[in-house]
Amino acid sequence: MVALKQQATPAGLALRIDNLSHAFSLEGQKLPVLDRVSLDVAPGEFVALLGPSGCGKSTLLRLVAGLEPADSGSLQADGEAIKRPDPSRVVVFQDPTLYPWRRVWDNVAIGLEARGLLKGEKGRVDAALAKVGLRQFARAFPHQLSGGMAQRVSLARALVNEPRLLILDEPLGKLDSLTRIAMQAELTQLWQRQGYTALLVTHDVEEALLLANRIIVFSERPARIQAQLTVERPYPRRRDDPYLVQLRQQILGLLGLGETTREVIAS
Q1: Among the three residues 162, 181, 214, which one is the final residue of a domain in this structure?
Q2: Which domain holds residue 148?
Q3: What is the pLDDT of residues 182-231, one digit of tens each?
């Protein structure tokens, strides 16, 4: 693909999701959430997941992260079954969830500290903060940061583990439009420099088109894959690119929003 040719050799892992189904138990009844989902993600690929709210996208991310087992089907990372969380697969959530009593440096260091690696790997914390442009804020507390800066700390906390799969669950969803545009560019640049595999859930069609190599469109719950679209454009991408505008309309149609729907486009 065009985008992958621009990167260094990918450090990301290969993800395989095969015939995956999952349901929640609600008041003694089974509520199907995922229905026979199969998907292969290549090392270093950036894949975005789109679909109606509540269809099961975030549940799929939790299963990929190993936070809970699937009811049926299989998940593999580099050919190994995903059975539990692993530092090679790190989730960045919509809320930064920083500890308010810990300084920025100490928040980023939590993963290494929990694994007993911090004493000999302190340089990794400084390097992660440098990657997101916050090294000078290492001694700040979370309440002293803007929303965008707090989300950068959350990214640094993920990157300090040197993940091979970055799992992004609407990480920019609560940011103001200008900060969101800046963070979209930073996410793209980080992914290109680091070469990890990225899996993004977003409700923003334009965001998916700007960031991803491939977009997966899900149906209503229980989620089934109804379309996969490759985005054949180099980075950085332009919001007004006619090719992306056409893809956007195609995706909106798949989501049942049609030609008459008008989204607010940040510019």
Answers
A1: 162
A2: 98-162
A3: 889 989 998 998 899 999 999 999 999 999 999 999 999 999 999 999 99
- Per cent of the chain over pLDDT 70 is 93
Handedness of CA 241, 242, 246, 249 (dihedral sign): positive
Task: Give the chain's length.
Answer: 267
Beta bridge partners of 22: 34
Same domain, 239 and 110: no
- Is residue 51 in some structural domain? yes
1 neighbors 232 (Cβ within 8 angstroms)? yes
Calpha distance 200→61 (Å, rounded): 9
Phi, psi for 252 (deg, rounded to 5): -60, -40
Across the chain, the runs of DSSP E, i.e. the strands, are: 15-26, 29-41, 46-50, 72-77, 80-81, 89-92, 165-169, 197-201, 214-218, 225-230
* pTM metric for this prediction: 0.87
Contact 75, 16 (CB under 8 A): yes
Residue type at 159 in one-letter notation: L
* Alpha-carbon separation of residue 1 from 125, 188, 254 (angstroms): 33, 16, 23
pLDDT at residue 117 is higher than 50: yes
Residue 7, pLDDT above cutoff 70? no
Domain-terminating residue out of 116, 132, 162:
162
**What would the DSSP string read from start to end of 85-122?**
-BTTEEEE-SS----TTS-HHHHHTHHHHHTT-GGG-H
